[in-house]
Write a structure and sequence with these properties.
Layout: H1 2-16, H2 33-37, E1 39-49, E2 54-67, E3 70-79, E4 84-93, E5 99-102, E6 106-115, E7 118-129, E8 132-144, E9 149-158, E10 161-172
Antiparallel strand pairs: 1-2, 1-10, 2-3, 3-4, 4-5, 5-6, 6-7, 7-8, 8-9, 9-10
Length: about 170
């Protein structure tokens, strides 16, 4: 019984682990968050349940602007079911190079670390579902492919269990 409990505990701890962004520090091209998102960017994405079923698809028009030492991302979502949503991120780069971000539907502050072509965000989003609001943890990874294209994959978890994945493809406008 003790062995079984140890195996279960190790499996649970391993399932919660994620790679460290520093493993990508030599990957090219180097991601400069402001340079990539300043101006207009489009993104297309989908949310999949943990079983792989696609629940929602969406298009996002993003406008990135510098304001008073901060970087603001205005995201305009258009979902496949016809609904729309706006999220405005206010981002600040700390002295150690990490990024801090806030948005109305994010609890507390998102913390992001960049290394090489990768960015890893950790945050808790407040998601409304059927009249209730749930706190869902995001492990959000962005990888710059070239100067115009980026891929984003985020894992959503509640109580340590994966609820699903969000996948986005970004393309910088002209």
């Amino acid at each position: 019984m003790k062995k079984l409990l140890m195996v279960a505990l190790c499996t649970l701890l391993t399932a919660c682990a994620s790679p460290d962004v520093t493993q990508y520090e030599k990957a090219q091209p180097t991601l400069d968050l402001v340079q990539y998102f300043e101006g207009k960017t489009d993104a297309w994405g989908m949310f999949q349940k943990r079983n792989g079923e696609v629940v929602k698809r969406f298009h996002v028009e993003i406008t990135g602007t510098r304001r008073n030492g901060q970087f603001v991302l205005d995201e305009q979502f258009k979902y496949s079911d016809g609904t729309k949503q706006q999220r405005i991120w206010t981002l600040t780069q700390a002295a150690d190079g990490t990024w801090q971000g806030t948005a109305d539907d994010v609890k507390g502050t998102a913390i992001g670390k960049v290394a090489g072509n990768a960015l890893n965000w950790q945050y808790t989003m407040l998601l409304p579902v059927d009249g209730k609001v749930y706190e869902v943890k995001f492990d959000d990874w962005m990888f710059l492919i070239d100067e115009n294209a980026m891929i984003n994959r985020a894992s959503m978890r509640k109580f340590g269990f994966e609820l699903g994945q969000v996948t986005l493809f970004f393309k910088k406008r002209g």
